[in-house]
Amino acid sequence: MSKYSYFNEKAVPAIQKVASNSYVVGVQKAVLKVVPMILVSSIITLYNIVKTYVPALPALDPISNYSFGLIGIMTAFLIPYYLLEEKHDSRKIVGGMTGLAVFMLAMNPKILEEGNLYNFSNFGAAGMFVAIICGLFIVMIFRLSNRLNLASEDSPLPDFCKEWFNSIIPIFVILLISTIAVYNFEFDLFNFIVLLCNPILGIVDTYWGGLLIVLLQTVVYTFGISCWVFNGAIWPITTAALAANAAAFAAGTSLPYVYSYGFDYAYIIFGGMGVTLPLAVYFLRSKSKRLKLLGKVYIGPTLLNINEPIMYGNVVWNPILMIPSWLCTIANYSIAYLLVRIGLIMPPISSFGLWFLPYPLPSLLIGGISAAIVCCLLIALDFVIWRPFFKAYERNILKEEEEAAAAQA
Fold first, then answer.
1. b/e string for 34-47 if b means 16 or more Cβ within 10 A?
2. Where along the chain do its domains lie?
3. Would you state the torsion angle of the CA atoms of residues 404, 405, 407, 409, taken in this order, to the nearest 10 degrees?
4. Collapsing DSSP states into helix, strand and coil, what is residue 170?
């Protein structure tokens, strides 16, 4: 009996059932479509690392701003489009256009004499969660409107006219609700998401507070929502904790906080948020030709802790690979927290900005030799956690490759 037999027989079928849900499939398809934009931005990230040491190079940030910086609004169109496609609804393009309209409304622009003023950062990763919520809302209304079709299937009207009439009611209802929410009740969906996290931030000095902050960022990332959306709320808290630790260290007193800014870089996010370094290595060594090729693409950026390509390419909305990402985050945080508490390693006491260095260098620079040793042990543990999930995923891909080869024969 295989050592993973129980996992394969019990856990994998349940995970695959979730993965095959039409809503999960639709969102996954939408997120995959923006991956090329993310890859372009990753190139600029690598370029900017080089530019740090060669300042004479020209600034190319606009390329990133108008690729990765627009994935939120792109997703606003793609989510309802692919969800309606999964429901075999011919109004998918209309649904996508409605998604753009609702997303722009949800951004709650400031109305000036010169026109509406939008926060550009919300068009990018910060808008992913909002785009998904808007998309689900739109599809719900479109599906409910099927009961009120103004033009039935047997109507003599041309198909495009049927689509017009059958789209009028859901579009009007969606925009009416959105307009009332934003302009009459001044509801700001972006701020609402951040406010939901504030209770967690209030307990950052406890084990559970730090864990919830780290895990929340990882979980939302695996759903295609950049953890940057929480930075405005999280950074003031973690940097204040770092400052308190630095002051205590200078005074020769005990450090008051375990989790502070830099703790993630030292002990948790190996290969980027979601702990994807082991996954990139497994891809590189896979029996699947497809995964091996992807591994060659992913390994370089992942070694530099730039993991948007692998996250959006394979992990996001893929339950088989989402779960180990969560488990590694919990394991790394919990073990590091315990080791700090018993005095074997130190929490950060100074600001750290060299996040792009391959591990264990960040750990070494933040916490010294002991931190680097712990980093290596945690990475080894992460490889163990990732392995059964990767093998289950690899079997699915190998089966697809075999079926494709048989069809061509």
1. bbebbbebbebbeb
2. 16-187, 192-408
3. 170
4. helix
